[in-house]
Design brief:
alpha+beta, seven-stranded mixed beta sheet, two-stranded antiparallel sheet, globular, redox-active center, antioxidant, Thioredoxin-like_sf
């Protein structure tokens, strides 16, 4: 197992084109062309407790994040069909993207060696990135916690908590 790439503020965000839960293609380039910053977050698996909590937190904060000029996309290795079930089951309004080959995960350093219950394993590293309108990484957070992460991210971005 090798150490994953680690992106840092100022690095160019790797471009991607991935498929959504409803089979639409979404690219980072197209999202940035809308003149908004993009929050790209990677999570291990749809419909698991931590990932559900995190996705629901992003959904609950989506209006405030959009009002502040951000678009949110969640990326996992799940199939579009599983992502569609996840969206429907939990009433998610964020964009969910499928990366079954893990190419985008690896490009962002969100897949590789990690500790799980004290053991070294290879897997998805829960990570969040803020990409500026110029395509550069503004914030790179690795090994984030599912619970409380969105509140911490909002604080890091200088955004008030949702009303």
């Amino acid at each position: 197992m090798s150490d994953p790439v680690r992106l840092a503020p100022g690095d160019s965000a790797p471009d991607f084109t991935l498929v959504t839960d409803d089979e639409r293609e979404v690219s980072l380039t197209a999202l940035l062309a809308e003149g908004r910053k993009v929050i790209v977050y990677f999570y291990p698996a749809a419909m698991t407790p931590g990932c559900t909590k995190q996705a629901c937190d992003f959904t609950d904060s989506l209006d405030a994040l959009q009002a502040a000029g951000y678009t949110v996309v969640g990326v996992s290795k799940d199939t579009p069909a599983k992502l569609a079930k996840f969206r429907e089951r939990d009433g998610l309004t964020i964009t969910l993207l499928s990366d079954p080959e893990l190419g985008v995960h690896r490009a962002y350093g969100a897949y590789g060696e990690k500790k799980l219950y004290g053991k070294l394993v290879e897997g998805v590293i829960r990570s969040t990135f803020v990409v500026g309108t110029d395509g550069a990484i503004e914030l790179a957070q690795y090994n984030v916690k599912a619970t409380g992460h969105v509140a911490k991210l909002r604080k890091d971005l200088g955004l008030a908590a949702p009303a």
